[in-house]
Amino acid sequence: MTPRETPPFRADHVGSLLRPPALRTARERRSENEITAVELRTVEDEAIREVVELQRSAGLRSATDGEFRRGSWHMDFIYRLRGIGKSDEQLHVTFHNEQGDLEFSPSAFRVNDRIGLNEVVFADDFTYLKSIVDDSVTPKQTIPSPSMVYYRGGRAAVDETAYPDLEEFYADLATAYAQQIAGMAGLGCTYLQLDDTSLAYLNDPEQRAMVARAGGDPDKQHVRNIATMNAALRDRPDGLRVTTHLCRGNFRSSWIATGGYDFVADALFNELNVDGYFLEFDDERSGGFEPLRFVPKGKQVVLGLVTTKRGELETVDSLRARVDAAAKYVDLDQLCLSPQCGFSSTEEGNDLTLDEQKAKLERIVETAALIWG
Question: pTM of whole model > 0.90?
């Protein structure tokens, strides 16, 4: 086995990282109009420079900006699509953890008009990231998958005047994403990740029941979502590597869905046209490795074996044993290693320290070197 020269890398990570105290303070001050947008961006620039150095010094071959300029992993992007606006309503989402339940009530959004793209979202952010990495590190851009524009609100969130036929909605959504993808490639992006909760959530019977209550087809929603993603990726430029991360929920060390990837595995691995899959396998909620038997040759699976939900550091031996177990279902050369999710999908972050985060990133690099060289 040899190290990989193209993404995803043997040792990789999902994207979001814990916000440092100075950045959190600056964002709070900006929300109170105590500092200007320019002053906030100066703080963000410095924090991103430092977190890129953290990733480089840990030995990672890819680096993100930690999503430091965002409040959440998906909404900062979705609100910048034309035709989508904030709703007066709030969503009520129940997350779970070992201590009990945690209620989260984010603002809802609504598709009020035809969806389009006015500008390449996060263009300035990626340009800055690209300017501060060296040749040893590939800048990686993360964006929410198109599935996230529909899954959370369902048909009720899509104005029937704008879209009497949902197929037109999906077509416009795919076109806007295709333009975004082409725009990112034009900026020099060679590593793009589409973050998706729907394709993980739909493995959970409770989530499929929720889709049914909202008037959707719980047996086919994952197929519909995959088709939209494929339409967005159909004309992606040569040289752009695309992965997807399947998340079961990540907010303040809590989650939403449970269950293995069995329900979506065949379509996910054989129909979705991406180069690699970041999958969560950090505890019993994630199910077993058996669904990996559907992974075809030529695709990579990044095993999310290192949890971001708590600070306890996994041992090298335990990680190697888990990789060996996964290799019973898919060739070892098609596997990579990463954390199970981001460390800070929202700016609040998960319940671990900056030092614990650093140790986990270093452990991933250490373990991957022992396994793949």
Answer: yes
